[in-house]
């Protein structure tokens, strides 16, 4: 099944949260607001990792649940929180969340940050904005698959009783922080003083590889 994870984020809620952050912290600049968003999402991702690994403390059956169901739920939760984070940072930098171009740019940013391979194929922001509906959804699928592969690679760590819970939380925190730093820097380098209209410019992606 093909779907765009950003379609499942409530954009009105995103705009309200960003507006509240700006109102509550009028002394902070856009990069500092993005840091607040990043810290919050890191905590949510860490919590998701810990909760979905909890069944691992139960011998046999709990281990199976943590390894299979927990990994799947963790991937969905992290994907959702990362999507929210990217749109929130986009809103901080005055992107118009109500137009398709913003979501397409967000997918491009997420794909670049998780190393989904789009740079190797020469896909730029402008190219992504021109992809057909099916091709764009395939790109979304590849991004989610890239996140899923990373989650699967660490499945064995999740099933370690008790310790697996802390490991899962730490891994998710690190993943979110790494993606968030890339996203924050991207929007800071591509800021718009006025409300962005969804048009893109040609630029190559910088793929972040796992260390």
Secondary-structure blueprint:
Elements: H1 11-24, H2 30-53, H3 61-92, H4 100-114, H5 125-129, H6 133-153, H7 155-158, H8 163-189
Helix pairs in contact: 1-3, 2-3, 2-8, 3-4, 3-6, 3-8, 4-6, 4-8
Explain how this protein is built.
This protein is mainly alpha-helical and 211 residues long. The protein has one domain. 67% of the residues lie in helices and 0% in strands. It is built from 8 helices and no strands. The chain has helices at residues 11-24, 30-53, 61-92, 100-114, 125-129, 133-153, 155-158, 163-189. The protein is globular, with a radius of gyration of 17 Å. The relative contact order is 0.19. Residues 56-68, 116-133 and 200-211 have low confidence and may be disordered.
Share of residues in strands? under 5%
The N- to C-terminal Cα distance equals: 31 Å
Q: What count of structural domains?
A: 1
What gyration radius follows from the Cα positions, in whole Å? 17 Å
In N-to-C order, the SSE pattern is HHHHHHHH
Annotation keywords:
membrane, 67% helix, transmembrane, mainly alpha, 211 residues, single chain, transmembrane helix
Please provide a brief summary of the model:
The chain has 211 residues and is mainly α. Helices cover 67% and strands 0% of the residues.
């Amino acid at each position: 099944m093909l779907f765009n994870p950003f379609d499942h984020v409530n954009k009105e809620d995103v705009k309200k949260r960003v507006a509240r952050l700006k109102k509550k912290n009028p002394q902070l600049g856009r990069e500092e607001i993005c840091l607040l968003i990043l810290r919050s999402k890191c905590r949510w991702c860490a919590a998701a990792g810990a909760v979905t690994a909890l069944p691992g403390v139960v011998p046999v059956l709990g281990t199976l649940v943590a390894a299979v169901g927990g990994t799947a739920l963790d991937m969905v939760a992290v994907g959702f929180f990362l999507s929210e984070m990217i749109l929130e940072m986009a809103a901080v930098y005055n992107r118009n969340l109500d137009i398709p171009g913003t979501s397409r740019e967000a997918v491009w940013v997420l794909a670049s940050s998780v190393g989904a391979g789009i740079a190797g194929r020469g896909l730029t922001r402008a190219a992504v904005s021109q992809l057909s509906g099916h091709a764009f959804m395939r790109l979304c699928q590849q991004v989610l698959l890239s996140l899923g592969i990373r989650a699967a690679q660490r499945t064995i760590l999740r099933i370690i009783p008790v310790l697996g819970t802390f490991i899962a939380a730490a891994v998710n925190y690190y993943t979110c922080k790494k993606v968030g730093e890339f996203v924050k820097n991207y929007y800071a380098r591509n800021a718009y003083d006025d409300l962005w209209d969804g048009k893109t410019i040609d630029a190559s992606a910088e793929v972040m590889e796992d260390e």
